[in-house]
Design brief:
Urease, subunit C, domain 1; 2 domains; four-stranded mixed sheet; 12 helices
Amino acid sequence: MLLSHCRLPDGRADMHVLVREGRVAAILDAPPEIPAGGPAVIDCGGALLLPALTDFHVHLDKSLFGLPWMPHAAGPDRMSRIETDARILPTLPVGPRATALLQRCIAQGSVYFRSHVDITPAFGLRNLEAVLALREAEAGRCHIQTVAFPQAGVMRAPGTLALLEEALRMGADLLGGLDPCEVDRDPRGQLDALFALAGRYGVGLDIHLHEAGELGLFSLAEICARTRAAGMQGKVWVSHGFALGAAPEARLQRAAAEMAECGVGLVSHGAGGAALPPLLRLAEAGVAVLLGNDNMRDTWGPYGTGDMLERAAIIGWRLDARTDAAIAALLRMATEDAPRALGIEPPAVAPGAVASFVLLPAETPAEAVAQHPPRRLVVYRGRVVAGGA
């Protein structure tokens, strides 16, 4: 295809992007002559062409999209939400709900995903089976990486470790964990078991860490220590890490240095009810930082639209990131940095790069984040997967 009359992220306007075999073949100042039977021409009308987005933390199996509106049923604490999951979700087929959420995300320009999938005694492996089937069915439209996630805990839920191992055998890409102190009340037991299992199967870890204060910093230090001991630098992620958002300055600096040295990354969705880690400062300190939407219209909360630009804007607003440079740094976390962390080549608006794009009416990347206007076109590896009608 030929994407004509584009504005590029570097500021160049009225450019023409030629795509062949899923890659950018050329970026031209003037439109080439198109012979009969040549590439399809899409007039972008001066809109901004950005690399496609990555949602590095999503729960495809939890979504209630595709169903009539369901009022929030859980109580205000985390354990109530876990119990509500176990009561409501087993009665609802996973596939249609996950598909409805995925379609919304793709329409907003996200085509790369890391999805945590609940593996619990209440669900067994049904959620993973559905998400793996969805991954296969949608392979031509997006890339989905899966995390076997013990939402009900590990040590407190007998049989979960065996289910997690079976999930890895079935094809889950990573192993998850959850609040080793608050949920399991056995940090050594949970973390030793998870790191041992990850080591046996050669997979990475992505551990939900909601714990606040010194408890959360303790769990983070334990994760870092095990990462270093296991030689898993660059393969371990902490999702949320709320304790970093309220840590005293000296403790924050020490934790950031430890994470950077051990190669433990941080994933944030900017939760409104919790302390937000200083993501830009952590990135400057050498910590790998990525972004995700997390829960979207599910039993954990009614909010979320599937839009990673909107999510980056929420996070930027909470961080008081006002300059174009700061906003661009957040955008890189959702475009350039995240696919690499998934282990795949990132897209880019550059010759030779993977041709996965999102087109929208904006003048600069900073405006695209701050205003997150409607998406006109979404391309995955040279194929239009949303918009363009």
